[in-house]
Amino acid sequence: MTTSSPQAAQNFGLPEHPPHNERYERAREYLDVITRLWDSWEDDALVNNPVSGIFADTSKIHTIDHIGKHFRVRGPLNVSRPPQGRPVYVQAGSSEDGRAFAARFAEAIFTAHQTLASAQEFYADIKGQARALDRSPDQIKILPGISPFIASTQTEADRLQEEFDALIQPEFSLTQLRQMTGLDLTGFDLDSPFPRHLIDIKGAHGVASRFKLIVDILDREKPTIRQLVQRLAGARGHWVIAGPPEKIADNIQTWFENGAADGFNVMPPFLPGGFDLFAEHVVPILRKRGLFRQDYAGSTLRDHYGLSRPTNVFSRSLQAIA
Known about the structure:
About 40% of the residues lie in helices and about 10% in strands. By secondary structure, it is of the alpha/beta class. The longest helix has 19 residues, at about 20-40.
């Protein structure tokens, strides 16, 4: 819905892709609507009594009667409220609009950062905005992406990463880079310094957060074109780290204990082996350090994340009236 991909508009019945701010305006209204729809059945509305033949208490099923700029929805939903209350709201996007949207609605945030400092700034900003909206910061889990190349030694891990870097298709990578920066580098020497001066900093960019991440890499590391596309090709700008399991665990612990992450979205560079390596060699270290659960605390994603079950808005409204 807030995607930067112009093709997405065709899947939502739109003649063209809306501007960035309009996409978030539409998304805010959508979340207002869908939240009330999930709550349109109170928790005890489902009776399902075979003796009386009563399926549901209709006095506890509510229309939402929404009329807005983008949606007209009467409701109610045609299913009862789920065990989680509603699905966990997961958001991705780090632009200013994306951050404000996340602070208001998100319960888990998938975000991309290359440095501890960048992740800390994002973490503090989201949690601060949440407090200003009277939301508990603990009810928003910030989960940066991490793509680990894991081997028994640093040399072996570096060699594994180099093998994957060699598989990158430059033509596709340059197309991907053009979509994120607006800069066409076809015909440039891939091993020449990236022409930073050609990037239009002030122009509009569809993937605003990823654009900023790329500019930060250019200013901090001064890579060649090839080095940059290698950084972006596999993990799409997320944190890539290579090393033995202890190094991966050390870095995860540093980010977690220093206000940069509540957890991580593990993005292994190859499947299923990359997940297996992480589960078999990194997770036990995190468990030994008391950083990862020994057992699940419940049966839902909301339980696993330690998120509270949301109060039904209709039940709350009726209690206020009473």
